[in-house]
Amino acid sequence: MEVINKIGRRKTSVARLYLNAGNGNISINGRTLEDYFPSEIHKIIIKQPLVLIEADGKYDIKVNVNGGGFKGQAEAIRLAVSRALCELDEENRPPLKKEGFLTRDPRMVERKKYGRRKARRRFQFSKR
Question: Are 119 and 111 in contact (CB under 8 A)?
Fold first, then answer.
């Protein structure tokens, strides 16, 4: 089996993923999954596609991720893993699509506008 290279994005995070046959090692930016994501919820988010198609422990995953926070990075990795599993076998596509793992979440932070304090928040109005 050759190495599968996929990309996943979420908010401002970009994850570049390399998937090949192995025994379930997940490496993120040169660190282990447990070391990089101490929170249990982020580990669950990343492993969701693997658990769904019962492939947890069958593939080695190496990820380079940058930008954004922990949640955005975890969801970017989840999208990249889902895309890689689809390329590996087309049988994986329907269950992953049903769970929404193949959809790129388009929500981004709205930019700040001039004359405002934030994107939509106005400065405090003073009548007198």
Answer: yes
Domain annotation covers residue 45: yes
pLDDT digits (tens, 9 = 90+) for 78-120: 999 999 999 999 999 999 999 999 999 999 999 999 999 999 9
CA separation, residue 92 to residues 5, 85, 87 (Å): 17, 7, 9
Structural domain including 15 reads 4-99
Question: How many structural domains does the chain have?
Answer: 1
111-14-35-22 Cα dihedral, nearest 10 degrees: 160
Q: What is the CATH number of the domain that holds 90?
A: 3.30.230.10
CA distance 88 to 81: 10
